[in-house]
Write a structure and sequence with these properties.
This is Exosome complex component Rrp42. The chain is an alpha+beta fold. The chain has five helices and twelve strands. The chain has a single domain, classed as GHMP Kinase, N-terminal domain (Ribosomal Protein S5, domain 2, 2-Layer Sandwich), CATH 3.30.230.
Amino acid sequence: MAHEVLSALKRDFIHNLIVEGKRADGRDFREMRDISVKTNVIAKAEGSAYVKYGETKILVGIKLQKGTPFPDSPGEGIIMTGMELNPLASPDFEAGPPREEAIEMSRIVDRGIRESHSIDLKKLCIREGELVWMVFVDISVINDAGNIVDASCLASIAALLTTTVPADEANGFDSIPLPMQNIPVGVTVVSIDNTLILDPISDEENVCGTKLTIITENDGAISGMQKSGAEPLLPETVLEMVKLAGEKGAELRERYLSNLSIRG
């Protein structure tokens, strides 16, 4: 009962702030939190990154291993993305197998990477139909203060951009930088009382009527989109959200990833 009362109070508090044109952390509606990106933070990984979106903290490690290609793509490498919701990151997270929430969020990140053709998978083929490199993107949520997906997208791409593929001398495969050819970036917009808000904190995510994550590529094309929440969106609202995502995605790319050049 006490938890329900507290949740109701928080909900009213957030809604009242929105009506006054304010947010709980003092930001403008379309202002991102402070972001930091550090790469090469895990010595035993082929690539890694640690990203902070305010107090949301994400660690991504990239591991590569050799494996058998899929039958329908015998000349291409494989991407697999997984997410761990550390119980210490939030009281809402529990120990055990990946929860549905973690699977859904990792699929959003994976879709952005895969559908943008971010990695040139053909260059990861060692012997066609027999042996390819498999790229594992492992996302660990260290602290959840809201907007895990956007932080995970940024951390995953930063880690991939610094990844090196090991040599396989027995099969004549030289060590190369991971062949990247696109930089997808995710931007989430929520609607609270018909007001669009970027980079939501946890309380804003909990009270929003709907949430839309849009992943854009270098040229602004959309490689992924995921909606959650029961509130419907008008076509013009979706277009405004997409425009915001494209603008902020370009800013994020320039500010935090431009120094990690595509090395494919």
